[in-house]
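Today's session is about reading a structure prediction critically. Students often jump straight to the picture, but the first step is always the sequence itself: look for stretches that repeat, for charged clusters, for runs of hydrophobic residues. Only then move on to the predicted structure, which in these notes is written as discrete structure tokens rather than atom positions. Here is the chain we will use throughout the hour.
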Amino acid sequence: MNWKRFTIFLSSFLLCFFGKSISCGPEPDPYDYYPNFYNPGIAAQQGFEPFYYTSLSVYYGTEEPEENVVIKEWSAFFKDKIAEQDLRVFIYNYSRPEMAALYTLIDKGTPQQLPDNMMKNGLTRYFIDTKDRETLGYLMYAKQCEPHTGSTDAWNVPAPDSATMSRLSRNGVQLYKACKDPRIKERFAFQAIRMAHYSKAFKQAIQLYDSLAAPIPSSSLIHYKALALKAGALLRTGQPAQSVYHFSRVFENAPSQRTLAYLNTGWAAADPQQVMKLCANNNEKATVAAMYACRAADLNPEGLREVYKLNPQSPMLDVLLSREINKLEDGLLYSVLDGEASSWGFMEKPPQTKVTGIQQLLDSIATGGKVKEPALWHTSSAYISFMLKDYAGANKRLTAGKSNNSRTAIQDQWEIVRLLVAVNEQPRIDKDFEAKLLESFKWLDTRLAPVKRDNYFQNLGSSKEINDMFFSRMYRNLLDFIIAPRYAKQNDPVKKALILMKRDEVDQYAFRYGTVSGKDFISDSLPTTQLHALYDLKQQKRKTPYEQYLFDQLKLSDNELGEIIAINYVRQHDFNNAVTWFKRSGSSNHSENVFTEQLQDYGYETDTVGISQLDYAIKMVELEKKMKGKNVDPNVYYEYATGLFSISYYGHAYQFSVNYRPSTWWYEPAHENNPFLKQYFGCYRAEEYYKKAADAFPDKESKAKSLFMAARCAQKHINAKEEDWARTAIYENPYFPSLAKDYSQTAFYRDIIGQCSYLKDYVKTKP
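Below is the predicted structure for this chain, in token form.
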């Protein structure tokens, strides 16, 4: 069993089942849950979109709606003389009584009695002008059959009216025999077969297909819908192999019926070898093999090899190729990329022997001279070399796959693989290489769709939608997992920040939980020196074209960037410089109760505007000046400590020091190594000044309150294992003994012990 996938499936199931109570975020995007640089829609022939790879959905895309195919066929029937919208309205919206009224009025020669909207319909005018009663009669008959083919209310499905359906089937046979136009005869045959099938007269449905539909040479949708009915009837009469064979004919020739044929093939559970025996030639066998190969969730080079052996020209071969490459991405690519990509991928990492085995298969197909587009196979094999970090092998295969005659999709994929290899081969991204990157970025910009997908619940239908989404996703992954980590390794966080801002412009809709935006990275992760470097570079007029391009994507004004610098100084408790930069750039955040002590970690939100960041910083500077004098008022220490606590993770004004505050973070010993996080989570300086206030206050009430606030600060950084935190927070707090022993008679103590369960528990066990 694939335990990694099973664990994720189980988690997803629990999120679905208990979603409202335990879910903290969206479910994984079935189109975007693993790092992806290979276009799933690279297949040469459209119509196979549902069968691209994703392990989180039954189908990847949606096939062309059947209604669209029906309208196209009717449009061809009427020699494209009727507007498609008129056809759609007439066929799908008009009722049988309305059509019957038209039929009667044509006979009487008084069509003017029809409603105005119906008279204006192009198909209505056609029937009036041509008096084509045969076609109109079929549409009327189809309207009679329609109520018996399904229910709009899935919860209240009426019992099948077998007697009526049997009668309609017999009527269809009669109309078939009387009809002269073979195209309409075929449709009468379909309705007769359908009524027999839905009335569960499966043997009759098979007989009707063989006697009515089969003799008519046709490749229409109706022909294959009728064949699908026969295939279903064969399954119901205990002939699974014959059923799958006929469904394979539907799968190959009727794109709008492929998911239906594929689904029923699964239900049939027939032995593939028994199905193969029924095939007339290798092409038919290749289709059967491809249908079964698509059912493989794990790597399946055997299916690819079998289809290639049977029919190297099979349109499904490209689909199976993209499925195998996408599976490799899911199971392998995440392990060779940097950054957050290393935690993604739902498949187990395949052994290298299996990966190289797949590559050898691709190489043999690429050089075998049998496939239409060897460049696709060379390029795909080069991408596997990239995933294996075999850059020499990748370049060799790219050279073999470079072809000016290839399709645009293959040329684009070739360029993507070339770019991935070039970046990873480059020892350092220097200015010369940045010039080359700029060319690639501008090329990728031309591939971005003007309108992005709203959300991942939006189904993907056309190949264009799939292609558009791929490029935005792939471009984002390139910036996020390839370029940005390289700049981080080069110790160039400024360029990393610019790349992340570009990434957010490419695709703000990211699949990764907890991903930090470019703006948040600049606000919360860049140290002051790097922020100044970013600001100064922004002001420079002589930038390289690459730098200018990235700054064009920055979407941060000078004032916004200046405010970020000011907030960074607040994080360092450098309030003098913070005042300077707030005055220079402005301050957008306000908070209430910044200098009011916070006795609990909740209940501090207010509706009032409060003071600005600038006013806060000015106040802190004033307090610092007062603390430098002699005979400092204890209230100055207390107010300063409160100002520091308020900008901590737990404080009234946490937004004064950070742009992003995850609710799941808490203190951990590792934060001791980061000066900002040490204060943000640990509140050490706030504790220091609360202790100074306690020492300086002459009265016990103020001392008690100051010591309690110092105890709250100490509680934030008590260094203990997570499972021991509550115990140490109670019994190892350095201030609780003094509070309980020396201040238990104060009014503050009597009030706070009813609010603080930690202090109460300490007193219960420490007499």
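Discussion point for the tutorial: Strands lie at 590-591, 611-612.
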